[in-house]
Amino acid sequence: MPGSRTLTVLTVSVIVAAGFTGTALATPPGIPSESTARSELAALTVKADGSLDGYSRDKFPHWIDQGNSCNTREVVLKRDGTNVTTGSDCYPTSGSWYSPYDGATWTAPSDVDIDHVVPLADAWRTGAASWTQAQRQAYANDLADPQLIAVTDNVNQAKGDASPDEWKPSLTSYWCTYAEMWIAVKSRWNLTVNSAEKSTLTDMLGHC
């Protein structure tokens, strides 16, 4: 259940923040293989999305303190960037970020957003509306699963809260990985998928 993940996720988050090195990880953690993703997709509950009634981003507190003067956004910027250096406040002072959604590379952190792979609003519609605030906070700051990734800011904004049947990365070469990440997050947080979403994810796995 999502509640059982809260302590684990936050503990892993602190470990990641404390373990910064000069080597950037190429991808978020926990991306499953194609075969595992197909199995996880088959096991997801298929149902129509729920309502957005009552939704607010404030109900998913994010970019929380992760220790070492770092918040969640700064942890991901460090993890996903190349040759990233930071000031005493953990904010990057130099580095570069490759956005796998569109293939762009940026050298200013202000040009980079941290995308929730499965958006907060989508999570609300597919199960998170019934979670506690603590569970939603853990989800919004999940560093243990492939839920957070540094990408071009306007690409993230164009995605909004869309599911894969409504929006995909412009680089078709990333569709497989994107589908694997999306499925993993839905599986690990017990979220549902609608029929169009499941069909699209199946098609995207065909690019693996």
UniProtKB/TrEMBL annotation:
Keywords of the record: Endonuclease, Hydrolase, Nuclease, Signal
Q: Which residues form the GmrSD restriction endonucleases C-terminal domain?
A: 106-203
Q: Which Pfam families match?
A: GmrSD_C (PF07510)
Kindly give the InterPro entries that the UniProt entry links to this protein.
GmrSD_C
In the record, what terms sit under GO molecular function?
endonuclease activity
- Signal peptide positions are 1-26
PANTHER family per UniProt: AMP-DEPENDENT SYNTHETASE_LIGASE DOMAIN-CONTAINING PROTEIN-RELATED (PTHR24094:SF15), SECRETED PROTEIN (PTHR24094)
Q: What is this protein called?
A: HNH endonuclease
